[in-house]
Amino acid sequence: MSKLTYNKILHSIKAKRINSNTKIMLIILLCYIVILVLLLALNQPYMLWLISKYLLLTVISLILYFNIIKNVK
Question: What residues contact 66, with CB distance under 8 A and at least 6 apart?
Fold first, then answer.
């Protein structure tokens, strides 16, 4: 991610354009990425596969959840 994109995300969070649900989703994804990088550094292929599977399921469920909320509003 380029520095410009990172600054835009920070600016939109500070300007409160991103609602609290999106902030929670970003925090969850950031935690997953940190865990994946740590497991990659520790060379744990089975745990890496397991966490990446749950990451994929979590991302899919969050996308569906937020799409349903947008359609309801």
Answer: 21, 22, 25
- Grouping H, G, I as helix, E, B as strand and the rest as coil, residue 16 is coil
- pTM for this model (two decimals): 0.44
Query: Are the beta carbons of 55 and 71 closer than 8 angstroms?
Result: no
- For residue 22, how far is the Cα from the chain centroid? 9
Instruction: Calculate the alpha carbon distances from 61 to 10, 22, 46, 47 in Å.
Output: 25, 13, 23, 21
pLDDT confidence band for 19 (50 / 70 / 90): low
* Long-range Cβ contacts of 2-8 (<8 Å, 24+ apart): none
